[in-house]
Batch of 2 targets.
Target 1
Amino acid sequence: MKTYLFAATICLAVMGATSGQSAAAAYPDRPITMTVPFPAGGGVDVVGRLYTNEITQRTGAVIVIDNKAGSGGIIGVGAAARAKPDGYQFVMGSPGNISIAPSAYKSLSYNPAKDLTPVAMGVQIPLLLVTRPDAPFGSVPELVRYGKEHPGKLSYASGGTGTSQHLSGAMFVQMSGLDAQHIPYKGTSPALTDLMGGRVDFAFLDTSAVSNIKAGKIKLLAVTSAKRSALFPDTPTVAEGGVAGYEALNWYGFFAPAGTPAESVNWLYQQIKTAQGDQGLAEKFKAQTMEIPPAMDPAGFAKFVAADTAKWKQLIKSLGLKLD
């Protein structure tokens, strides 16, 4: 009888352990919410949907996109930062609401460094240094030389004060020693319109400006990445143009509320890593003028975000910039 009870106990223990392993392996066992802090159809939304669709098709996991737009992504990111860290809440972030906002805004409802856990970078995108079509300069060295020969005469446009476009331009002006006036607009479209019309001299714009470059309505001088972009292999970097050490990247990445179980963070990272090895997905991003980033695990992405934040913090402090 004792032998039977002992054997039964062992059997139940093994079954319990096996059941626990199955439960652990079953993650996710319910829908995951991926907050996209921008409207549907925009760049961040496209990236989120391309990744989640690929992951769903490959794994069967249900990932629901929740567009929670407003204030340059701050509303959606803030909501996700306060969400329950149960492994079923993630959010997409970008420089404006992750690296720039903590230093640029007088008050912010979240602290990215404390309230969010970096998971993986999804894509990276260089900004484009472009000029008006009739500009008397056709390269970065010529632009810098012209600016120094005509101090106070140059102006550069952006889609708004405190945006990555503005700060990329301000960093260029600062690092090159130019005297140029910043002209902020309410969005990229009006900035581009005035650049094409010759009312401002240059701008750092996102890759949505490519069609206007191809049409000859504006001139492309350089990309802002540290190395030449595979999207624009024949275009030099700003650093190659003589502004040593210059680098500015737009990027979209995945984050989780702080305290999210490491197993859940690692699961999403592994899914993104696998997706990034899919050539078909890479081609879809290329069609959107976006690049798959270099390999980065969560720790590597966290290190990148910390460095990006420190860079913009230093620049914002030097500009005395504070937004409401």
Target 2
Amino acid sequence: MQNSGTELLTAEAPGIARAATLLREGRLVAVPTETVYGLAARADSDAAVAAIYRAKGRPDFNPLIVHVAQLEMAENLAVFDSRARELAARFWPGPLTLVLPLREGAAIAPAVTAGLPTIALRMPAHPAMRALSIETGLPLAAPSANRSGGVSPTEAGHVVASLGGKIDAVLDGGPCERGLESTIVALRADGTWQLLRPGPVEESQISGLLGPAHDVTSAKIEAPGQLAQHYAPGKPVRLDAMQAGPDEFLIGFGDVAGDCTLSASGDLAEAAARLYACLHLGSSASQPRIAIAPIPIGGIGAAIRDRLVRAAA
């Protein structure tokens, strides 16, 4: 099945095999992960990585996350210390990205790291993505599968609406379970660590292993999602709204009912999973503005708030 030149593949053996073939050829395939859909290309090919930037309209100073199938593949690309191995053992496969020193001679296209001496690595947990990664045997650069700065996709239909005709295929693995991009942690040579992007793995879980984070953040863009304006639905966004104005699409939470509700029961995990789906609905709604109910900032609420602040910027 195709959509304007983009193949739609099922996340079963034939579809995964087809996707692997396309990736090995240097083509672009949108893939499901437990967080959001990623736009994958082989990370060792300058031409394939350049195609990601063209399709997304992505700034060339914004580095890409590289997805790996096994720890051995990761250690061929980055220098792991005891902290990195401890975090990988605890949270991989899963929604944690590690920013580590790039290993000398690593087979990675320079554009992947945006000229930085570090590389961002993740081992996804989604079974279709894991099967695909193993079948290709390649590290895969895979930012979110949407136009740069827009709302991240949590369903195959979101990808087609944003990038249909601009990429070679979409591997449809159903709705993403987590619905929020991975937590990104940078491990520094001086023994400190920094939280570059909040996500499903909470800061307290990291600090429980490594001690408190170092608060001073580099001025450089070291990882995806650090741009001040990101996840934008293309309309003005008002936060902490208790009710909608006459021209607003209201995204509700808890006791604040909306045109779309993140979680009527006030469940933050459900809210994270539904966040981008609701932003997509708000983006396509007839109302010219979007209002969003207050979200508690404890736990994963901090990650949700981070995305909303950037969407409203």
